[in-house]
Design goal:
alpha/beta, about 500 residues, 11-stranded mixed beta sheet
């Protein structure tokens, strides 16, 4: 029971070729069977079958259950789900069951979508390989010895392995697009503010944005229609009208100006990735697109800007995990703590993993007295200049095309002890978060080892439709062989 994509499966439910219960049971069984090897899920939804039967009852009675009725989705375990454990991949939240759901989850539920389970991730979304999760490493379904990318590695792996038909991830510096590239799926980060952040456990509030991870571009467009839109619970939520992305999807790109940023094709880009992007460029040009070279000089500053701003905001956001109000608390079985400082130190020292501690310390230092102006404020000023460079570039092109990541997926354990190499993996993705732009990764080809390679597209703020149209054309042209990998 395999469908090409979510859209096809939803149509089959409407035609009564299959019931929502049968579809969800299939993906639930695959999740149970494959998760010990893949590690895509932290928790599974034990109420899935009951919820699917409600959808079938509505359909049988003629009641409209919503445009995503019966859709089996994976939700990144950074997003609150009422009554379903939400851990952020961290020991400090290992037993946290939210009393409410994130706005985007509520919108998905109202549309008839169903949650197969909560997807694995790097702890608090801090990582590019899904190796920092307190609940075990997630593996790339295309090759189990390789990482799926991060931090939304579990979401990407669940879709790629056929353990869900689509997923929701979050992207703070590339955490949707990079794992999508590594696992061979479509990953979409909307414009900052398009999707409400209410109920998403905060990493870096000015950068975080949720989006879909799917098998096809049309699936991404369909899910975007549901989760986008203003939310009064999020002060940064945009009031921009949400287009019917899937209805308006078009593949005619004649005359579309596609920019190639020269800074994205410098030293450090693997030859295999370069060839895939060059092929994509050639194919798009053959369909009538106009290819123009553009320049974003501050690209080289994107990673340091990102790691100053993101860690500073993380230091502030993660200060709430003190062991008093909720979450993990150190036990002090031998003796009571001498004071509150010792209580906090033990709790946070035991509850947080090493990467999260590293980023909290970096951010606290950047925000400290005497260093705030030199580091955090300066990073914010350069961020604004980077944003302005993108505005200028979109005067000469409609969409930017680039690599998603410098290399295909790397082996588990290869970079975990080298933070600098791990951070440089985000060199092509962090800029869109800093500038608040939409970006996405579309599967483009494979490496010699058979690992997927994605092609990144970026557009101006709230220009998602234009980017989706180019992505749909690219998807047809590249003819990436998706399939379901054999993971045992």
């Amino acid at each position: 029971m395999e469908f090409r994509d979510l859209t096809e499966a939803l149509w089959a439910i409407r035609k009564k070729d299959i019931s929502a219960t049968e579809l969800c049971e299939h993906y639930s069984q695959r999740a149970v069977q494959l998760n010990p090897r893949v590690g895509a899920y932290i928790s599974l939804n034990q109420e899935l079958k009951k919820q699917a039967k409600i959808i079938d009852t509505k359909l049988a009675s003629g009641e409209e259950p919503g445009p995503l009725a019966g859709a089996p989705l994976a939700i990144k375990d950074l997003i609150c789900t009422e009554g379903l454990r939400t851990t952020a991949g961290s020991k400090i939240l290992e037993n946290f069951v939210p009393p409410y759901s994130a706005t985007l989850v509520e919108r998905l539920k109202r549309s008839g979508a169903l949650i197969v389970g909560k997807a694995n991730l790097d702890e608090f979304a801090m990582g590019s390989s899904n190796e920092t999760s307190a609940f075990g490493v997630c593996r790339n379904p295309q090759h189990l010895d390789f990482v799926p990318g991060g931090s939304s590695g579990g979401s990407a792996a669940a879709v790629a392995a056929g353990m869900a038909l689509a997923a929701i991830g979050t992207d703070t510096g590339g955490s949707i697009r990079q794992p999508a590239s590594f696992c061979g799926v479509v990953g979409f980060k909307p414009t900052y503010g398009r999707v409400s952040r209410y109920g998403i456990i905060a990493f870096a509030s000015s950068l975080d944005q949720a989006g879909p991870m799917t098998k096809t571009v049309r699936d991404a467009a369909l899910i975007l229609e549901t989760i986008c839109g203003h939310d009064p619970m999020d002060a940064t939520s945009s009031r921009q009208k949400v287009p019917l992305f899937s209805r308006d999807l078009a593949t005619d790109i004649k005359g579309v100006r596609i920019g190639l940023p020269k800074e994205y094709f410098s030293e450090g880009l693997s030859e295999e990735v370069r060839k895939v992007v060059e092929k994509a460029t050639t194919e798009l040009k053959g369909q009538g697109a106009e290819i123009v070279e553009v320049s974003i000089p501050l690209t080289e500053m994107a990673v340091p800007i990102y790691y100053l701003i993101a860690t500073s905001e993380a230091s502030s956001n993660l200060s709430r995990y003190d062991g008093v109000r909720f979450g993990y608390r150190a036990k002090f079985e031998d003796r009571p703590p001498e004071d509150l400082i010792e209580f906090y130190s033990r709790t946070r020292g035991e509850g947080f993993g090493s990467e999260v501690k590293r980023r909290i310390m970096l951010g606290t230092y950047a925000l400290s007295s005497g260093y705030y102006d030199a580091y955090y404020r300066k990073a914010c000023q350069v961020r604004r200049l980077l944003h302005d460079q993108f505005v200028d570039v979109f005067e000469s092109c409609d969409v930017i095309l680039s690599p998603t990541a410098p290399t295909p997926a790397f082996r588990i354990g290869e970079r975990i002890d080298d933070p600098l190499q791990m951070y440089l993996n985000d060199i092509y993705t962090t800029s869109t978060n800093l500038a608040g732009l939409p970006g996405m990764s579309v599967p483009g080809g494979r490496s010699r080892e058979g690992l997927p390679i994605g092609v990144q597209l970026m557009a101006g703020q709230f220009r998602e439709q234009q980017m989706l149209n180019v992505a749909a054309a690219l998807e047809q042209l590249m003819q990436f062989s998706q399939g379901i990998p054999d993971v045992g």
